């Protein structure tokens, strides 16, 4: 994105001195004019302080000396003193009628008004600049964009979004600078980047605060394995809190300016961070990562070649073998010709939040949101409005899994005039929420016999689409796992480990109204004769034995299990509730079991490894006294022979 003051000061000394030399200077005081030309000589000698002293004296002689004010502004611009530039441009231009020759001064003043959120005066001076018929195309385009932004901002401020951010307590905001907040899916851990101050020796580190007794604890370093004397920042954590990706710069193993690093948690210990390698990182700046809930998709910001703007958002995905794919540019409509940064993907995977100055906004970096349709296409980004967005640059926004709470950082000035960045919490307005509501299932995976925690693969499938939605690993020390569940889907949850029967569970979030968290411990049975499991994701129409298409995920899991354990034989048994006659139920259960066995045989599982049997209503697991109990009695089981 064009930075006008930077552009106009590329040749600051030349600009300042040439402006002082422009023709005659109008004043009713000859002494003031003499001082003006002495200032010109001092500026040409690069003695700007002496030049400013002459000009100050000239204004004392003639307080309405417009040219002197403008020359003071140009000198201060060359010296990088923006407040003085603003003050003197205001005074000088207010004393003169419109003059096309002053178009660059109008441009500078307009930009300074914009920085202060004075949209009306910014618009007026950008229009003066355009009236001068400038030849610089970049500046012309920028002025027109800022006029559009001023109009947008004026309308946005008439319709402010109703949200009330609350600063997090001092025990959390205990640093001079803290930013990039995020939480785990269960909202028990708040992770953010912080530094004690602005000095170079005060490096960035990653901190974590825990939610205990209805309040956030004082933050502590996330791990000595992660935080070093180098800068570690802009971190993202997976929904289960077991994978973290963060940015670090200028390490011995860096690929470029700043790289992305990854670390994994086992128990309470984080692994030594590993550079994500040349496939993910580039020789450019790679930063501001955001992981999907299961840690298998990564969005991040990069200045690498091949983008649309200076900074773009890129995405990479984890392969089945644990390697990462070559990142892809998200392209339009998300990325623009400006800066598109700080992505945050909601745990539902349906909504992306990011900051940009390339889409229509209120000036600087605004927060935008975009949603993904069922064809994986992203919508045109939507500005999230005032007062979250202002004329200043905004930071990243994080929204919790349940769409209720949001966290972001805000730059402020202390009473002493120092710049600080503080963390805020907010109740998320309805129109900011992810289009899909989410919750989570959380528990531990145990050995069914010893009751000891085990490491297992936990996979979540959309059984309607027969597609893997998430995959996480239970902690090998504690057995803990967390997986996100979103509305509008019918899920099959599969927990498996070598040497154990898989455990399959079913979650129907298509019609469910409640999205409360699910506490679910899973017990895996060792593979041995007599061990049996219920196959919870096999579906039949009422009174029918033909397998419905939603059963494919479970059936294919069975085939994989048989391939991985080629020496075992299994029995597929069918069971019904007590509705209908005993004879009819017996026949129905036999046919349903046979349908499953036939599917396996038709997919290259040897016939002699599978038998099927129907028990009808003779082996209920619950009394047939309610609809819920009857639904559990209608089942297909697999037993090891």
From TrEMBL:
The lineage of its organism: Bacteria, Pseudomonadati, Bacteroidota, Cytophagia, Cytophagales. One of its GO terms (cellular component) is cell outer membrane. Keywords: Cell outer membrane, Membrane, Signal, TPR repeat. The keyword Hydrolase does not apply. It is found in: Cell outer membrane. The keyword Signal applies. TPR repeats lie at residues 32-65, 66-99, 103-136. Residues 527-641 form the OmpA-like domain. Residues 607-641 are annotated as: Disordered. Residues 1-21 form the signal peptide. Its main location: membrane. This is Tetratricopeptide repeat protein.
């Amino acid at each position: 994105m064009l930075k006008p003051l930077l552009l106009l000061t590329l040749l600051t000394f030349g600009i300042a001195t040439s402006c002082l030399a422009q023709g005659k200077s109008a004043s009713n005081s000859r002494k003031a004019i003499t001082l003006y030309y002495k200032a010109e000589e001092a500026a040409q000698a690069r003695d700007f302080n002496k030049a400013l002293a002459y000009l100050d004296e000239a204004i004392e002689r003639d307080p309405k000396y417009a040219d002197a004010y403008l020359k003071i502004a140009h000198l201060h611009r060359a010296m990088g003193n923006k407040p003085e530039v603003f003050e003197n441009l205001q005074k000088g231009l207010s004393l003169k009628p419109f003059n096309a020759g002053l178009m660059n001064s109008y441009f500078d003043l307009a930009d300074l008004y914009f920085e202060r959120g004075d949209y009306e005066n910014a618009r007026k001076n950008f229009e003066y600049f355009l009236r001068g018929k400038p030849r610089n195309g970049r500046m012309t385009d920028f002025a027109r964009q800022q006029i559009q932004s001023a109009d947008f901002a004026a309308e946005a401020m008439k319709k402010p979004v109703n949200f009330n951010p609350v600063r997090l307590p001092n025990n959390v905001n205990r640093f001079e600078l803290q930013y990039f907040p995020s939480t785990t899916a269960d909202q028990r851990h708040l992770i953010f980047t912080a530094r004690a101050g602005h000095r170079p020796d005060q490096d960035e580190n990653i901190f974590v605060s825990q939610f205990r007794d209805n309040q956030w604890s004082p933050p502590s370093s996330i791990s000595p394995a992660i935080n070093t004397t180098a800068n570690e920042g802009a971190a993202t954590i997976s929904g289960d809190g077991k994978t973290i990706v963060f940015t670090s710069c200028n390490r011995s193993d860096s690929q470029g300016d700043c790289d992305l690093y990854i670390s994994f948690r086992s128990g309470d210990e984080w692994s030594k961070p590993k550079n994500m390698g040349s496939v993910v990182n580039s020789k450019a700046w790679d930063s501001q990562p955001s992981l999907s809930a299961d840690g298998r998709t990564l969005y991040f910001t990069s200045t690498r070649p091949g983008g649309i703007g200076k900074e773009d958002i890129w995405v990479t995905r984890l392969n089945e073998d644990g390697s990462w794919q070559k990142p892809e540019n998200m392209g339009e409509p998300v990325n623009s010709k400006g800066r598109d940064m700080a992505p945050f993907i909601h745990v539902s995977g349906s909504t992306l939040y990011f900051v940009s100055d390339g889409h229509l906004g209120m000036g600087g970096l605004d927060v935008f949101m975009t949603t993904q349709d069922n064809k994986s296409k992203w919508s045109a980004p939507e500005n999230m409005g005032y007062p979250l967005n202002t004329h200043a640059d905004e930071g990243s926004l994080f929204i919790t899994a349940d769409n209720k709470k949001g966290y972001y950082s805000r730059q402020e000035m202390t009473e002493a005039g120092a710049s600080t960045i503080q963390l805020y919490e907010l109740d998320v307005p309805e129109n900011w929420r992810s289009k899909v509501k989410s919750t989570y299932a959380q528990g531990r995976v145990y050995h069914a016999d010893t009751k000891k925690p085990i490491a297992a693969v936990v996979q979540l499938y959309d059984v309607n689409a027969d597609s893997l939605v998430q995959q996480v690993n239970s902690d090998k020390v504690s057995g803990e796992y967390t997986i996100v569940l979103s509305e509008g889907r019918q899920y099959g949850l599969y927990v498996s480990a070598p040497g154990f029967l898989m455990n399959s569970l079913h979650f129907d979030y298509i019609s469910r109204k409640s999205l409360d968290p699910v506490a679910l411990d899973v017990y895996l049975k060792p593979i041995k004769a007599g061990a049996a499991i219920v196959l919870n994701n096999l579906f039949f129409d009422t009174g029918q034995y033909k397998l419905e298409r939603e059963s494919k995920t479970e059936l294919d899991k069975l085939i994989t299990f048989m391939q991985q354990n080629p020496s075992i034989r299994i029995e597929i048994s069918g069971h019904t509730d007590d509705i209908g006659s005993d004879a009819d139920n017996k026949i129905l259960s036999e046919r349903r079991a046979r349908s499953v066995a036939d599917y396996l045989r038709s997919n290259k599982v040897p016939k002699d490894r599978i038998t099927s049997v129907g028990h009808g209503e003779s082996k209920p697991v619950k009394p047939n006294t309610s609809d819920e109990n009857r639904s559990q009695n209608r089942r297909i089981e697999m037993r090891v022979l």
